[in-house]
Structure to design on (355 residues):
Protein backbone atom coordinates (compact mmCIF):
# COMPACT_ATOMS: atom_id res chain seq x y z
CA UNK A 1 0.00 0.00 0.00
CA UNK A 2 1.02 3.59 -0.55
CA UNK A 3 3.00 4.86 2.38
CA UNK A 4 1.20 8.14 2.83
CA UNK A 5 2.77 10.35 5.40
CA UNK A 6 0.25 10.41 8.20
CA UNK A 7 0.34 13.27 10.68
CA UNK A 8 0.08 12.67 14.40
CA UNK A 9 -3.52 13.93 14.44
CA UNK A 10 -4.68 11.28 12.04
CA UNK A 11 -3.56 8.50 14.31
CA UNK A 12 -6.89 8.90 16.06
CA UNK A 13 -8.66 7.23 13.18
CA UNK A 14 -7.03 4.21 11.63
CA UNK A 15 -10.08 2.22 10.54
CA UNK A 16 -10.22 1.09 6.90
CA UNK A 17 -12.83 3.74 6.09
CA UNK A 18 -11.11 6.62 7.93
CA UNK A 19 -9.53 7.75 4.68
CA UNK A 20 -5.96 8.02 3.48
CA UNK A 21 -5.85 4.47 2.16
CA UNK A 22 -7.79 2.08 -0.03
CA UNK A 23 -10.52 0.57 2.16
CA UNK A 24 -10.70 -2.54 -0.02
CA UNK A 25 -6.92 -2.85 -0.07
CA UNK A 26 -7.18 -3.26 -3.86
CA UNK A 27 -5.48 -1.25 -6.57
CA UNK A 28 -7.72 1.16 -8.53
CA UNK A 29 -7.51 -0.61 -11.89
CA UNK A 30 -8.29 -3.97 -10.38
CA UNK A 31 -11.36 -2.59 -8.61
CA UNK A 32 -12.53 -1.00 -11.86
CA UNK A 33 -12.06 -4.33 -13.66
CA UNK A 34 -14.35 -5.91 -11.04
CA UNK A 35 -17.00 -3.24 -11.61
CA UNK A 36 -16.75 -3.69 -15.37
CA UNK A 37 -17.22 -7.42 -14.92
CA UNK A 38 -20.24 -6.80 -12.71
CA UNK A 39 -21.83 -4.70 -15.47
CA UNK A 40 -20.90 -7.37 -18.01
CA UNK A 41 -22.57 -9.95 -15.76
CA UNK A 42 -25.75 -7.90 -16.03
CA UNK A 43 -25.50 -7.86 -19.82
CA UNK A 44 -25.05 -11.62 -20.07
CA UNK A 45 -27.79 -12.19 -17.48
CA UNK A 46 -30.28 -10.17 -19.51
CA UNK A 47 -29.46 -12.23 -22.58
CA UNK A 48 -29.71 -15.55 -20.76
CA UNK A 49 -32.85 -14.55 -18.85
CA UNK A 50 -34.53 -13.48 -22.11
CA UNK A 51 -33.63 -16.90 -23.47
CA UNK A 52 -35.15 -18.52 -20.40
CA UNK A 53 -38.33 -16.44 -20.63
CA UNK A 54 -38.86 -17.28 -24.32
CA UNK A 55 -38.22 -20.92 -23.61
CA UNK A 56 -40.66 -20.98 -20.68
CA UNK A 57 -43.32 -19.35 -22.85
CA UNK A 58 -42.95 -21.99 -25.60
CA UNK A 59 -45.03 -25.10 -26.14
CA UNK A 60 -42.11 -26.91 -27.79
CA UNK A 61 -38.38 -26.28 -27.85
CA UNK A 62 -35.71 -28.12 -29.89
CA UNK A 63 -34.00 -30.78 -27.76
CA UNK A 64 -30.35 -29.97 -27.02
CA UNK A 65 -29.11 -33.56 -27.32
CA UNK A 66 -30.67 -33.80 -30.80
CA UNK A 67 -29.21 -30.53 -32.09
CA UNK A 68 -25.74 -30.86 -30.58
CA UNK A 69 -24.78 -34.44 -31.33
CA UNK A 70 -21.91 -34.13 -33.75
CA UNK A 71 -18.18 -33.81 -33.28
CA UNK A 72 -17.36 -31.65 -36.34
CA UNK A 73 -14.75 -33.24 -38.55
CA UNK A 74 -14.95 -36.58 -36.73
CA UNK A 75 -18.48 -37.88 -36.51
CA UNK A 76 -21.73 -36.35 -37.74
CA UNK A 77 -24.30 -37.67 -35.28
CA UNK A 78 -24.87 -39.92 -32.30
CA UNK A 79 -22.51 -38.29 -29.80
CA UNK A 80 -24.54 -35.69 -27.92
CA UNK A 81 -22.62 -33.19 -25.78
CA UNK A 82 -19.20 -34.69 -26.53
CA UNK A 83 -17.94 -31.72 -28.54
CA UNK A 84 -19.20 -29.13 -26.07
CA UNK A 85 -17.58 -31.21 -23.34
CA UNK A 86 -14.25 -30.78 -25.10
CA UNK A 87 -14.87 -27.03 -25.41
CA UNK A 88 -15.73 -26.74 -21.71
CA UNK A 89 -12.61 -28.65 -20.77
CA UNK A 90 -10.44 -26.38 -22.95
CA UNK A 91 -11.87 -23.24 -21.33
CA UNK A 92 -11.51 -24.53 -17.75
CA UNK A 93 -7.96 -25.62 -18.60
CA UNK A 94 -7.05 -22.19 -19.96
CA UNK A 95 -8.52 -20.64 -16.81
CA UNK A 96 -6.15 -22.80 -14.80
CA UNK A 97 -3.12 -21.76 -16.87
CA UNK A 98 -4.21 -18.14 -16.29
CA UNK A 99 -4.23 -18.54 -12.48
CA UNK A 100 -0.86 -20.24 -12.75
CA UNK A 101 0.42 -17.17 -14.66
CA UNK A 102 -0.91 -14.92 -11.89
CA UNK A 103 0.70 -17.18 -9.28
CA UNK A 104 4.04 -17.05 -11.13
CA UNK A 105 3.68 -13.25 -11.24
CA UNK A 106 3.49 -13.15 -7.45
CA UNK A 107 6.89 -14.84 -7.44
CA UNK A 108 8.22 -12.35 -10.05
CA UNK A 109 9.12 -15.23 -12.35
CA UNK A 110 9.05 -13.62 -15.79
CA UNK A 111 9.77 -16.86 -17.64
CA UNK A 112 6.95 -18.80 -15.98
CA UNK A 113 4.44 -15.97 -16.47
CA UNK A 114 5.34 -15.89 -20.17
CA UNK A 115 4.93 -19.66 -20.61
CA UNK A 116 1.59 -19.79 -18.78
CA UNK A 117 0.37 -16.83 -20.85
CA UNK A 118 1.36 -18.69 -24.02
CA UNK A 119 -0.65 -21.69 -22.80
CA UNK A 120 -3.64 -19.43 -22.03
CA UNK A 121 -3.53 -17.84 -25.48
CA UNK A 122 -3.36 -21.30 -27.12
CA UNK A 123 -6.34 -22.42 -25.02
CA UNK A 124 -8.27 -19.33 -26.14
CA UNK A 125 -7.53 -20.00 -29.81
CA UNK A 126 -8.51 -23.66 -29.43
CA UNK A 127 -11.84 -22.65 -27.91
CA UNK A 128 -12.48 -20.13 -30.70
CA UNK A 129 -11.63 -22.80 -33.29
CA UNK A 130 -14.13 -25.20 -31.72
CA UNK A 131 -16.73 -22.45 -31.61
CA UNK A 132 -16.16 -21.80 -35.32
CA UNK A 133 -16.58 -25.52 -36.11
CA UNK A 134 -19.77 -25.66 -34.06
CA UNK A 135 -21.23 -22.61 -35.81
CA UNK A 136 -20.19 -23.96 -39.19
CA UNK A 137 -21.86 -27.29 -38.46
CA UNK A 138 -25.14 -25.66 -37.37
CA UNK A 139 -25.04 -23.30 -40.34
CA UNK A 140 -24.77 -26.29 -42.67
CA UNK A 141 -27.77 -27.85 -40.96
CA UNK A 142 -29.70 -24.70 -41.85
CA UNK A 143 -29.58 -22.72 -38.62
CA UNK A 144 -28.65 -19.04 -38.68
CA UNK A 145 -30.03 -15.69 -37.57
CA UNK A 146 -33.42 -15.62 -39.28
CA UNK A 147 -33.23 -19.06 -40.86
CA UNK A 148 -34.01 -22.62 -39.78
CA UNK A 149 -33.98 -26.03 -41.52
CA UNK A 150 -37.04 -27.04 -43.59
CA UNK A 151 -40.11 -28.55 -41.92
CA UNK A 152 -39.16 -32.15 -42.69
CA UNK A 153 -35.71 -31.83 -41.13
CA UNK A 154 -37.07 -29.89 -38.14
CA UNK A 155 -38.78 -33.03 -36.82
CA UNK A 156 -35.34 -34.52 -36.13
CA UNK A 157 -34.67 -31.85 -33.51
CA UNK A 158 -37.78 -32.38 -31.39
CA UNK A 159 -38.74 -35.24 -29.10
CA UNK A 160 -40.56 -37.91 -31.09
CA UNK A 161 -44.31 -37.57 -31.24
CA UNK A 162 -44.22 -34.12 -29.65
CA UNK A 163 -45.13 -30.73 -31.06
CA UNK A 164 -42.75 -29.33 -33.71
CA UNK A 165 -42.55 -25.55 -33.65
CA UNK A 166 -40.78 -23.62 -36.42
CA UNK A 167 -41.36 -20.31 -34.65
CA UNK A 168 -39.64 -21.44 -31.45
CA UNK A 169 -36.83 -23.13 -33.38
CA UNK A 170 -36.19 -19.71 -34.91
CA UNK A 171 -36.09 -18.15 -31.44
CA UNK A 172 -33.64 -20.86 -30.41
CA UNK A 173 -31.39 -20.20 -33.43
CA UNK A 174 -31.39 -16.41 -32.95
CA UNK A 175 -30.63 -16.69 -29.24
CA UNK A 176 -28.00 -19.37 -29.72
CA UNK A 177 -26.00 -17.38 -32.25
CA UNK A 178 -26.45 -14.09 -30.37
CA UNK A 179 -25.43 -15.42 -26.97
CA UNK A 180 -22.61 -17.75 -28.03
CA UNK A 181 -21.53 -15.03 -30.48
CA UNK A 182 -21.40 -12.41 -27.75
CA UNK A 183 -19.50 -14.84 -25.55
CA UNK A 184 -17.16 -15.77 -28.41
CA UNK A 185 -16.51 -12.06 -28.98
CA UNK A 186 -15.50 -11.79 -25.32
CA UNK A 187 -13.17 -14.76 -25.73
CA UNK A 188 -11.68 -13.15 -28.83
CA UNK A 189 -11.09 -9.85 -27.02
CA UNK A 190 -9.61 -11.81 -24.14
CA UNK A 191 -7.17 -13.60 -26.43
CA UNK A 192 -6.05 -10.25 -27.92
CA UNK A 193 -5.57 -8.74 -24.44
CA UNK A 194 -3.72 -11.88 -23.31
CA UNK A 195 -1.36 -11.51 -26.29
CA UNK A 196 -0.70 -7.86 -25.35
CA UNK A 197 0.07 -8.98 -21.78
CA UNK A 198 2.37 -11.71 -23.10
CA UNK A 199 4.28 -9.20 -25.24
CA UNK A 200 4.59 -6.79 -22.29
CA UNK A 201 5.80 -9.63 -20.07
CA UNK A 202 8.44 -10.65 -22.59
CA UNK A 203 9.47 -7.01 -23.04
CA UNK A 204 10.06 -6.86 -19.28
CA UNK A 205 7.52 -4.09 -18.69
CA UNK A 206 6.14 -5.68 -15.55
CA UNK A 207 9.56 -6.68 -14.28
CA UNK A 208 10.64 -3.03 -14.48
CA UNK A 209 7.40 -1.97 -12.82
CA UNK A 210 8.07 -4.45 -10.04
CA UNK A 211 4.57 -5.96 -10.15
CA UNK A 212 2.62 -8.33 -12.34
CA UNK A 213 -0.69 -6.79 -11.31
CA UNK A 214 -1.74 -6.36 -14.96
CA UNK A 215 -1.65 -10.13 -15.36
CA UNK A 216 -4.01 -10.37 -12.40
CA UNK A 217 -6.47 -7.82 -13.84
CA UNK A 218 -6.58 -9.49 -17.23
CA UNK A 219 -6.85 -12.81 -15.41
CA UNK A 220 -10.07 -11.57 -13.79
CA UNK A 221 -11.50 -10.87 -17.23
CA UNK A 222 -10.43 -14.27 -18.52
CA UNK A 223 -12.00 -16.11 -15.56
CA UNK A 224 -15.18 -14.14 -16.08
CA UNK A 225 -15.33 -15.39 -19.68
CA UNK A 226 -14.98 -18.93 -18.33
CA UNK A 227 -17.71 -18.19 -15.77
CA UNK A 228 -20.13 -17.04 -18.47
CA UNK A 229 -19.42 -20.18 -20.46
CA UNK A 230 -20.37 -22.31 -17.45
CA UNK A 231 -23.83 -20.71 -17.60
CA UNK A 232 -24.15 -20.81 -21.39
CA UNK A 233 -23.18 -24.50 -21.29
CA UNK A 234 -25.85 -25.31 -18.70
CA UNK A 235 -28.70 -23.36 -20.26
CA UNK A 236 -28.09 -24.23 -23.91
CA UNK A 237 -26.66 -27.72 -23.74
CA UNK A 238 -27.95 -29.38 -20.55
CA UNK A 239 -31.28 -27.93 -19.47
CA UNK B 1 2.09 3.80 13.27
CA UNK B 2 4.80 1.20 12.89
CA UNK B 3 2.50 -1.53 14.18
CA UNK B 4 -0.06 -0.44 11.58
CA UNK B 5 2.45 -0.71 8.73
CA UNK B 6 3.71 -4.10 9.78
CA UNK B 7 0.12 -5.27 10.10
CA UNK B 8 -0.64 -4.21 6.50
CA UNK B 9 2.55 -5.85 5.37
CA UNK B 10 1.69 -9.14 7.05
CA UNK B 11 -1.73 -8.99 5.45
CA UNK B 12 -0.16 -8.38 2.07
CA UNK B 13 1.90 -11.51 2.49
CA UNK B 14 -1.08 -13.59 3.57
CA UNK B 15 -2.88 -12.25 0.53
CA UNK B 16 -0.24 -13.75 -1.73
CA UNK B 17 -0.15 -17.06 0.08
CA UNK B 18 -3.83 -17.77 -0.42
CA UNK B 19 -3.62 -19.46 -3.85
CA UNK B 20 -0.79 -21.93 -4.07
CA UNK B 21 -0.17 -24.15 -7.07
CA UNK B 22 -1.57 -27.20 -5.31
CA UNK B 23 -4.76 -25.30 -4.41
CA UNK B 24 -5.17 -24.21 -8.04
CA UNK B 25 -5.08 -27.84 -9.15
CA UNK B 26 -7.53 -28.87 -6.42
CA UNK B 27 -10.01 -26.26 -7.70
CA UNK B 28 -9.41 -27.49 -11.25
CA UNK B 29 -10.30 -31.05 -10.28
CA UNK B 30 -13.39 -29.85 -8.41
CA UNK B 31 -14.58 -27.99 -11.53
CA UNK B 32 -13.77 -30.97 -13.73
CA UNK B 33 -15.53 -33.33 -11.30
CA UNK B 34 -18.71 -31.22 -11.25
CA UNK B 35 -18.71 -31.10 -15.08
CA UNK B 36 -18.28 -34.89 -15.19
CA UNK B 37 -21.26 -35.31 -12.83
CA UNK B 38 -23.32 -33.09 -15.16
CA UNK B 39 -22.37 -35.31 -18.10
CA UNK B 40 -23.21 -38.49 -16.19
CA UNK B 41 -26.67 -37.06 -15.47
CA UNK B 42 -27.22 -35.88 -19.06
CA UNK B 43 -25.82 -38.91 -20.90
CA UNK B 44 -26.56 -41.78 -18.52
CA UNK B 45 -29.03 -41.08 -15.72
CA UNK B 46 -31.68 -39.23 -17.75
CA UNK B 47 -31.66 -41.61 -20.78
CA UNK B 48 -31.85 -44.64 -18.43
CA UNK B 49 -34.84 -43.12 -16.65
CA UNK B 50 -33.08 -42.80 -13.27
CA UNK B 51 -33.95 -39.12 -13.31
CA UNK B 52 -36.67 -37.35 -15.26
CA UNK B 53 -35.82 -34.48 -17.53
CA UNK B 54 -37.59 -32.08 -15.19
CA UNK B 55 -35.95 -33.24 -11.98
CA UNK B 56 -32.50 -33.08 -13.63
CA UNK B 57 -32.80 -29.35 -14.36
CA UNK B 58 -32.62 -28.06 -10.76
CA UNK B 59 -29.60 -30.32 -10.22
CA UNK B 60 -27.86 -28.81 -13.26
CA UNK B 61 -28.55 -25.31 -11.96
CA UNK B 62 -27.24 -26.09 -8.45
CA UNK B 63 -24.08 -27.67 -9.92
CA UNK B 64 -23.62 -24.65 -12.21
CA UNK B 65 -23.89 -22.26 -9.26
CA UNK B 66 -21.36 -24.40 -7.40
CA UNK B 67 -18.94 -24.10 -10.34
CA UNK B 68 -19.56 -20.34 -10.47
CA UNK B 69 -18.73 -20.13 -6.75
CA UNK B 70 -15.43 -21.96 -7.19
CA UNK B 71 -14.39 -19.83 -10.17
CA UNK B 72 -15.25 -16.51 -8.50
CA UNK B 73 -14.05 -17.40 -5.01
CA UNK B 74 -10.75 -19.07 -5.87
CA UNK B 75 -9.72 -18.29 -9.46
CA UNK B 76 -10.89 -14.70 -9.24
CA UNK B 77 -9.63 -14.59 -5.68
CA UNK B 78 -12.76 -12.88 -4.32
CA UNK B 79 -12.90 -15.10 -1.22
CA UNK B 80 -9.64 -13.57 0.00
CA UNK B 81 -10.61 -9.93 -0.54
CA UNK B 82 -11.98 -7.60 2.13
CA UNK B 83 -15.52 -8.44 3.27
CA UNK B 84 -16.76 -4.99 2.22
CA UNK B 85 -15.54 -5.62 -1.32
CA UNK B 86 -17.17 -9.04 -1.44
CA UNK B 87 -20.54 -7.50 -0.49
CA UNK B 88 -20.06 -4.61 -2.93
CA UNK B 89 -19.75 -7.10 -5.77
CA UNK B 90 -22.16 -9.83 -4.66
CA UNK B 91 -25.16 -7.83 -3.40
CA UNK B 92 -25.94 -6.24 -6.85
CA UNK B 93 -26.53 -9.81 -8.08
CA UNK B 94 -29.90 -9.47 -6.29
CA UNK B 95 -31.01 -7.37 -9.27
CA UNK B 96 -30.37 -10.37 -11.53
CA UNK B 97 -32.47 -12.57 -9.24
CA UNK B 98 -35.17 -9.90 -9.46
CA UNK B 99 -35.11 -9.99 -13.26
CA UNK B 100 -35.31 -13.79 -13.21
CA UNK B 101 -38.41 -13.66 -10.96
CA UNK B 102 -40.08 -10.95 -13.05
CA UNK B 103 -39.43 -12.60 -16.40
CA UNK B 104 -40.35 -16.15 -15.36
CA UNK B 105 -43.63 -14.75 -14.11
CA UNK B 106 -44.08 -12.81 -17.34
CA UNK B 107 -43.24 -15.84 -19.47
CA UNK B 108 -46.04 -17.83 -17.85
CA UNK B 109 -48.38 -15.11 -19.03
CA UNK B 110 -46.90 -15.24 -22.55
CA UNK B 111 -47.44 -18.99 -22.53
CA UNK B 112 -51.10 -18.56 -21.60
CA UNK B 113 -51.50 -16.15 -24.53
CA UNK B 114 -49.45 -17.74 -27.34
CA UNK B 115 -48.08 -21.03 -26.08
CA UNK B 116 -51.03 -23.34 -26.43
Amino acid sequence: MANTAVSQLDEVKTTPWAGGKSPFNVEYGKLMMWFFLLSDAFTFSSLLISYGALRFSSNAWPAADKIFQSVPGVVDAGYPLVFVGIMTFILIMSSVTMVLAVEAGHRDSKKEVAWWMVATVIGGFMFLGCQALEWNHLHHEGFWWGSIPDAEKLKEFFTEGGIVSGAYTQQFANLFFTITGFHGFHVFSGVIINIVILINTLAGTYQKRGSYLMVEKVGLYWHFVDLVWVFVFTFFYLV
Amino acid sequence: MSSETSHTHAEGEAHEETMTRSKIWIVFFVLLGITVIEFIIALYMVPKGMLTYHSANPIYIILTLAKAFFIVAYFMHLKFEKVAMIYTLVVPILFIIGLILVLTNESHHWFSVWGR
Observations:
- Residues 1-17 of chain B have pLDDT under 50 and may be disordered.
- Chain B has five helices and no strands.
- The two ends of chain B are 72 Å apart (CA to CA).
- Residues 1-81 of chain B form one domain.
